[in-house]
Amino acid sequence: MTFLQQFSVVFIFIVLACAFVMMNLVLAWFIRPRVHSQDKYIPYECGERPTGHSWIQFNNRFFIIALVFILFEVEIVFLFPWAVIFKLALTTKMGVSVFTEMCVFIMIMGVALAYIWVKGDLDWIKKS
Q1: Domain count, the chain
Q2: Looking at per-residue confidence, does 109 or 53 come out higher?
Q3: Of 8, 55, 86, 88, which is least surrounded by CB within 10 A?
């Protein structure tokens, strides 16, 4: 079998997927409503009228806490595959190196957490 014959099925699936997406977009364009109500132009559509001005000062503490949470959550996800194969790694010659690498990784995360904690980025109300 040639290269083109081997990947012809993949190419057909890609073409069909693109055609499916385009067909759905065109179909949605035909059936969507063309007349928008005034509620469509408010800042958000949650069923209630907004009160006050939409340009308010927002505390960036929420953003920093969210970024720190996502950072540590993503890094913790790396522990799950390691924990699954750790028992298998112990039976091989590389068990000690796998364990030390993960200990170094956890220490780096601990240092990062200590830095953020000492800096005060985990406090909701920052002390002046």
Answers
A1: 2
A2: 109
A3: 55
